Amino acid sequence: MTRPFRVAVVGAGPAGIYAGNILRTRALDAGIDVRIDLFESLPAPYGLIRYGVAPDHPRIKGIVTSLHDMLADGSVRLIGNVEVGADITVDELQSLYHAVIFSTGAQRDAVVDLPGLNLPGSFGAADFVSWYDGHPDVPRQWPLDAAQIAVLGNGNVALDVARVLAKHPADLLTTDIPDNVYAGLAASPVQDVHVFGRRGPEDIKFTPIELRELGEVPGVEIVLYDEDFDRSAEDAPTGERRAAGNQAKVMARILQSWRDRASTGAPRRLHLHFWHKPVELLGEDAVAGIRFERTEPDGQGGIRGTGELRDYDVQAVYRAIGYRGTPVRDVPFDESAGVIPNDGGRVLDGGVPVPGLYATGWIKRGPVGLIGHTKGDAGETIEKLLEDYDLLADTPSADDDSVLEFLEGRGVRYTTWEGWLALDAHERALGDSFAGEVVRERVKVVSRDEQVAISNREVIVR
Fold first, then answer.
1. Is residue 161 domain-resident?
2. Which segment of 160-164, 294-298, 364-368 scores lowest on mean pLDDT?
3. DSSP summary character for residue 447
4. Is the residue at 458 inside a domain?
5. Could you read off the pLDDT of 229-286 as tens digits, one per residue?
6. Residue 374 has pLDDT above 90, yes or no
């Protein structure tokens, strides 16, 4: 009788869940008996959906329903609260599985060379997002003591950070915002949040839905500056304007509608600035301001500095200019690109494929594209894995219980899908029991130990 083909997927975010689901489907079509274990370093699944998407984005979080359905039938087994590279090594995984797929994402802020970067009051967006999403491995408190704040970046993460900072906390209570995050935001003295982009309005990386939602935040006025729209966005020496797609046209109409608005006198303001290249953070003991050089189109599709410098008085700066992957111990890693080097998903070491190791998602291609793009990416990786099936199937592997016995022997308090259902129900019950005037979706449990205890139905000691 043919032994089952065993595959470990490391990372239970969208990329990992898609990879497991696609592998299950294609293996079934090929007549392969595949057994898939989905490892996650956190006690709960869903990765950036739970810990990387702003809490006031229920439509984006709606993808959880699809991911839930992929895991609910049990054909992909969830093993949470296990750090691959620490609780179990990659070599040990390979002794238990025919193949290992890494889908660990991109969780670090991109590296920036900017004077003053290390001043107190300078923050990376990745850390702030982890805080407001209740990640168990970041501090519970966040220094929200600035009245004027700068956010660097013109992508969706910059918009999320700016919106959460500017939004009145009471408007977040209908989401899954943790209690400590609500308390922190409620005490914030913020008045002005400034979002700065190096390029012009035609080059913003927001999606139309993100941009439109920004203008619907109660009690927050959107402020634009005519001088940023007076600069021509030429990208050819002939002076011909770049042809705009439908998405760009929609966003241009949204921006124009805000320019046409009269001032609302709202207590908080969110400013969008364009043609600003950061030069340095100002201050001695803490951030006291930020200096920019104004930019302009270079006539070749890029930008150039004008030499004009501008200073803004701010007490905090958030960098939202991209994410990078985190290395997994004993797995090849390209530090300059922040990814696992690979060829179509096959992990490479010195340009040579490493038998049985694969990558998918942002750790494979970098933090580009939307969540849905990971489906096609996972499909490519699974195709490569199945091309290698005949070679991989001849390698040793263990049985279904071996990895659980291994983890138990090492004292690892792993969690399961049934445990996640228990934690999910607990968080929803906390929301139902909230005594305020709003209906709360859930109250997210932040503590890792408490998450594990609830998942494993252990006694919680406070």
1. yes
2. 364-368
3. -
4. no
5. 876 544 433 333 444 577 888 888 999 999 998 888 999 999 999 999 999 999 999 9
6. no
- Rounded distance, CA 297 to CA 239, Å? 11
Structural domain including 30 reads: 5-107+325-414
Closest listed residue to residue 52, CA positions, set 402, 434, 367: 367
Q: Side chain identity at 180, as an amino acid letter?
A: N
Say how many C-beta atoms besides its own lie within 10 A of residue 73's C-beta: 9
* Crossing angle of the two packed helices 63-72 and 14-29, in degrees rounded to 10: 50
Contacts of 430 (CB under 8 A, 6+ apart): 440, 442, 443, 445
Rg (CA), the chain: 24
Read off the pLDDT of residues 204-236 as tens digits, 9 standing for 90 and up: 888 888 888 888 899 999 999 999 987 654 443
Handedness of CA 85, 88, 94, 99 (dihedral sign): negative
Q: How far apart are CA 378 and CA 154, in angstroms?
A: 27
Which tokens is 147 given?
């009245």
User: What is the DSSP track for 90-127?
Assistant: HHHHHHH-SEEEE---EEEEPP---TTTTSTTEEEHHH
Regarding whether 370 and 272 lie in a shared domain, the answer is no
* pLDDT at res. 460: 59
What whole-number distance in Å separates Cα of residue 164 and Cα of residue 54?
A: 8
Phi/psi for 289 (5° steps) reads 175, 180
Pick from 327, 404, 395, 399: which is nearest to 356 by CA? 395
Task: Please tell me whether residues 94 and 116 are part of one structural domain.
Answer: no
Q: pLDDT band at residue 439, thresholds of 50, 70 and 90?
A: confident
How many separate domains does the chain show?
2
Is the domain of 60 the same as that of 40? yes
Closest by alpha carbon to 173, among 55, 271, 288?
55
Pairwise CA distance, residues 77 & 192, whole Å: 47
Q: What is the mean pLDDT of the chain?
A: 90
Which amino acid is it at 369? G
Asked whether 231 and 276 are in contact (CB, 8 A), the reply is: no
Residue 5 pLDDT greater than 60, yes or no:
yes
My answer on whether 154 and 303 are in the same domain is yes
